[in-house]
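Make up an example, fold above all:
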Amino acid sequence: MKHGKKYVDSAKLVDSSTLYDISDALDLAVKTGKAKFDETVEVHVRLGVDSRHADQQVRGAIVLPHGTGKQVRVLVFAKGDKATAAQEAGAEFVGDDDLIAKINGGWMDFDVVIASPDMMGVVGRLGKVLGPRGLMPNPKAGTVTPDVAKAVTEAKAGKIEYRLDKTNIIHCPIGKVSFGTDKLRENFEALLGAIVRAKPAAAKGQYIRSCVVASTMGPGVKINPAKIGG
């Protein structure tokens, strides 16, 4: 793949053979985020588990101390008092069958989906649409809950879900380049702490195999997994 001049210049700042300390790596991610927009900084963590086995799944959610820097559009499936509470908490879209039809028609202008438990029979019809996009409500992520107002507030505050992909890697945003190294480190440590605590009992050997941070348009910066734990 041919990269642009900004990427090539940024890549010169990073030694691909070095495993950096956390702060040094995040500092490089900030310095290499040279796009005209405020780039997102993402973490990619490879774990020593096998996602094909149910007892080695790693999945959860956490509210980052400084949020993600992204304006989150929240959709809630709820009725009655719960629907009212979701609206008052700031949800952009609240409904039931009307939203099902709209989503089945191709509408996807939202970032988080929350549902009250009584709505999951209806929401289940959207599994093939929301599932592949990582948007299907899930109790483990706190997005299926009777307290939809709390879930909306947390989503707005920067709650993110972490989960393994098929290659045993977790991909998560931890903020924007404009946050600076210190805030990004606090978000990073909160996320990695949650991932370490979620280590399955069935996991054997080294848990965190590798960790890379990168801005949206910048090169990957490798973090020494021995500095993280697990």
User: Anything to note?
Assistant: The helical segments are 5-11, 22-31, 80-89, 97-104, 120-123, 127-130, 148-157, 180-197. The two ends are 34 Å apart (CA to CA). The chain is about 30% helix and 20% strand.
